[in-house]
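Fold it.
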Amino acid sequence: CGAEAHLRVAHPDLAVDGARRAAALFGDLGDDAQRGHAFWVEAFAQTRLSNNPASRAAAGMAVALARSSGDEPGLANARSAATAVS
């Protein structure tokens, strides 16, 4: 997704905005796996911005959504994000 691209090229502020838009869109579509991926991107972007409380919150959402949707790779990614700021 575009938010992940921004994160990978060192634009975490743009990644946060894009991830939030993506999470809202996937929420409207009822796609919890992709919504969880968007929260995972936000979690890492918030870490790069040194915003650990927001990173923890986004990582927690990513973990919950990956679990509820049965997205095992997403759950591994989300747990990685969660431990990065623990």
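The chain has five helices and no strands.
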